[in-house]
Amino acid sequence: FDGTIVLFTDVSKMKEIEDMQKQFLSDVSHELKTPMSAIIGSVEILKRDGLDSPEIFQEFMDILLKESYRMQNIINDILELSRLDQTRVKLDFKELDVKAVVKESIDLFEPMAKEKHISLIYHNKIEKPVILDYSTVKTILSNFISNAIKYSNDGVIKTKKENNMFVLSVQDEGMGIPKNKLNYIYDRFYQVDKSRSSKISTGLGLSIVKKIVELNQGIIDVESTLGLGSTFTVKLPINPKVSHNEDII
Ligand code: ADP
To answer: Nearest Cα to 81, choosing from 243, 215, 248?
Structure first.
């Protein structure tokens, strides 16, 4: 007998990931169940009473459409999160005309803003192209702008450069977020007030933004006062030597 070797393996991290995956799966099922039940219920009512009453037909067709959109948005957001969760996400760093990209996003949200009689304002302090990942900037803009429209009646988008960082902020004077809820807004499926969520709300937008900002080794910050409004800010490093055409893990 020459001795004993005892081998300990720390599996706590693996267990933590496993638990998170289980929790996510259960959240996904729960979130999909709600619109699915509404869709089934509406089809049942339409089948029974829809042909006799144009009002019922209209009402339940609207619910059907709204819940189908919600399901589609949840699925798209889950797919995006799962893509970002892959270990090797390819970020494509190229020269970007920031002004043009922001204007592109504003144009995309113009119809939604018009519906709420909102005008989106843009202040830019960057004239020359900067090296950034286009898809990152577009994702951040889409989420911040759509949230400003959903939870406010205005939106001011600002872009500037600060110590070799690209700074993008979206400020609104909307409903704001309670201080004790600020820590949760990046959690998957978290919504401050679920009963007021619109057809395009999924509670996944900010978790996608946080994830993509982390992949870029950037910083995300929010300042918000209940009833007065919120400012979401993202800072992304502009460092082509480190990040140009490399896989960021
Ligand atoms: P959602 O699809 O619900 O908008 P997000 O992940 O984008 O999901 O946001 C999470 C929650 O944070 C929202 O449900 C909302 O309660 C709150 N929130 C996000 N942006 C704003 C904002 N600009 N003003 C007020 N509340 C906001």
So the answer is: 215
Residue 191 CA, ligand 1 centroid: distance in Å = 6
- Ligand 1 neighbours, Cβ below 6 Å, are 143, 147-148, 150-152, 172, 174-177, 185, 190-193, 197, 201-207, 230
pLDDT tens column, 48-75: 998 889 999 999 999 999 999 999 999 9
- Confidence (pTM): 0.86
CA of 208 to the centre of ligand 1 (A): 12
How many whole angstroms from 185 Cα to the centroid of ligand 1?
7
Look at the chain and count its residues.
Answer: 249
